[in-house]
Amino acid sequence: MDLPEETSKQEEPAPSEEVFPKEPILPEGFTPIGDLAHLPRARRRRAQRMLVPPAADERAALLDDLARRAVPSFEFFLFAFLCGAVLGAAYLLNAPALLLLGILLAPLLTPWVGLILAAVTGSWRFFFLTLGGLLVAGALVFLTGALAGLAGHLWDNLPFYYARIHAQLWWPDLLVVALGAALLAISFVRSEQKPFLASVMLAYGLFLPVSAAGIGLGIGKDIDGVALWPNGLLVFLVHLALAMLVGGFVLVVLHFKPMKASGYLLPIFIGLLSLMALVVFTGLVTFIRDGITDARRIPPTPTTLILPSASPTVFQTPTPTPTSVPSATLLPTPTFQPTPVYAMITSISGGGALMRAEPGTGTPITAISNGVLVQVLSGIESDGTRTWVRIRVNNVEGWVLQTVLTATTPTPPTVPTTTVTTNP
User: Fold this and answer.
1) What structural domains and CATH numbers belong to the chain?
2) Cβ contact 333:365 at 8 Å
3) Which of 172, 185, 224, 234 has the fewest CB atoms below 10 angstroms from its CB?
4) pTM for the model
């Protein structure tokens, strides 16, 4: 059926001015920032990059959404338990593949983001809620590590090589923790996707030393001069303090701040506490004090490391010629063993040195902390750029770099005397 011409004209599309309105249609509840054309270019870019909306109700809604995502769930504690069990088995078996698997099983550390978010915005209640969840997860990892340490009593002289490594402070670990904290804070706030990679980096710095501390408590003794307990726990506190400072700074840069003046008390308190933990537990106070003390002293004369030779030299006195007695019988000259030479481990980085089975890229045998006295054996080898020295410590022989040894004062050898007897 054909429609009248007038009806078809009424259904024709409107002109382009009416189809595309000049003013954009904004969503309901949207609060525009305003016309920024009159602002300078630098302030205009800063306003456009602002993450948190200026309106108080929109900012409160954003914080509420982030808080709901950061609350720990049952899966968080379940994966923390699985992570601790695998890490304990990895330390017990010295298996680096299991260490990697344990870190990959670590839960997504959203409660840590909630912790720094509560600290920066001054929410005391939410701060203690997320702190409790994070401490419970750490306790699960610690207890499973302690059970693995108790199981270590079934075998004798387990090396616990990787546990000794992660119970000490290392500069690369501090860098990984700082980078992971910054990436996790940015990714969690700016996107609703789960930042797995950044969470794994932070879990590496938090859960590995906690599990090593549990191993030390379960085994009940030091391993080659390294106290896994409580050193591992102190390393965990240092990493947590560093992560809190870096994550809090990132959120401040992203324009998160307390809504009330009274809310500034919590971020100031947490910041000072974290800074104090870094200064005290890293030994920075002792380092500065020793540096000032050494600067006031006269620099000592460097001591050359004396190494024993393969064939010891026997000191003898000249054979006397008897004049008054016609004949004399000389007793045999006794042969003395070489005096042992000792040196002290004084590495300038890492807090110690690795003893290897062979010079160069040999298999690591054990880690020796600074201050440990070792016996220097005969044998020096060079791999082109470095010199390796053969040593013995705790009845274990191996090779270390000559640069990590500082010679002690050697005991001079005793000069034997020759006894002359005459026949009457």
Assistant:
1) 56-292 (no CATH), 338-410 (2.30.30.40)
2) no
3) 172
4) 0.58
